[in-house]
Design a protein that fits this description.
This protein is of the alpha+beta class. It has nine helices and seven strands; from the N terminus they run ααββββααβααββααα. It comes from Lactuca sativa.
């Protein structure tokens, strides 16, 4: 089944609540509280970061959502995220994202790589933020995330009004710098006002984070200069090649 923007034909009956269902009873709360006291819940307790960013439906880039990632780090090259539609206590789990380093991404087959998106622009543009955490504390982490790739499947399209997780999962992509991939300014403004941040200022402060493109250009420049030196044609060029190093 392919993702689509068509709302499901049949929606569950009820009072319109999302999700549909009866309110919790005292008994339900006692069961949950007791289980929470007796069980370790180890996987959940490994969540170490909350990231707020934006995601775009790959089949329709005009549909964009604010996404809250709760991240567990399994090792230096692999993170896994439970993705919610907000950071409220009643937030709905809308999907899952896996994040790998560029070292792992480069080993994937070409067809598999098509399912993953780069976090380069997401970080350098200031869209990727750790709410309420000082920027300087996460500087190294931001530089690492900029060189990672994510695979995000959205299982609950609440933005189109789904009251339950219905239909096939939708593959999501990272915001882009051009065309329909540019995040809608009103979405960013709402997020910025909530957390009292300014995305434009974050973008400026992250301008020196080396992007994948910058690294490739630098590598090409070094290769080109080395090639010119080997051919001993430096005299042909009026500029001094050392400034490119």
């Amino acid at each position: 089944m392919a993702s689509s923007d068509k709302a499901p034909d049949v929606m569950p009956v009820g009072d319109g609540s999302v999700p549909p269902g009866k309110p919790m009873t005292v008994g339900d709360k006692v069961v949950d509280k007791s289980a929470g006291m007796l069980q370790t819940l180890k996987p959940i307790k490994q969540i170490s970061q909350h990231v707020c960013t934006f995601s775009v439906y790959s089949h329709d880039m005009s549909r964009q959502i604010e996404a809250h990632h709760y991240i567990t780090r399994l090792n230096q090259d692999f993170l896994q995220c439970a993705v919610y539609d907000s950071d409220d206590s009643s937030a709905r789990l809308i999907g899952v994202e896996y994040i790998v380093s560029d070292r792992i991404f480069d080993t994937l087959p070409t067809d598999e790589q098509k399912l993953w998106h780069s976090h380069d622009h997401e970080v350098t543009s200031g869209l990727w933020v750790n709410p309420r955490v000082p920027e300087m504390l996460h500087r190294t982490e931001l530089e690492n995330i900029a060189h990672t790739y994510g695979k995000f499947w959205c299982t609950w399209q609440v933005d189109r009004g789904d009251r339950l997780p219905l239909g096939a999962p939708a593959l999501m992509m990272s915001p882009q710098v051009v065309n329909m991939g540019v995040v809608q300014p009103e979405l960013v403004l709402v997020r910025d006002n909530k957390y009292k941040i300014k995305t434009d200022e974050l973008r400026k402060s992250r301008a020196d984070i080396p992007s994948k493109l910058m690294m490739l250009c630098h590598a090409f420049t070094l290769y080109f200069c080395s090639w010119v030196r080997r051919l001993e044609v430096r005299a042909v060029f009026p500029f001094h090649l050392d400034k490119f190093y």
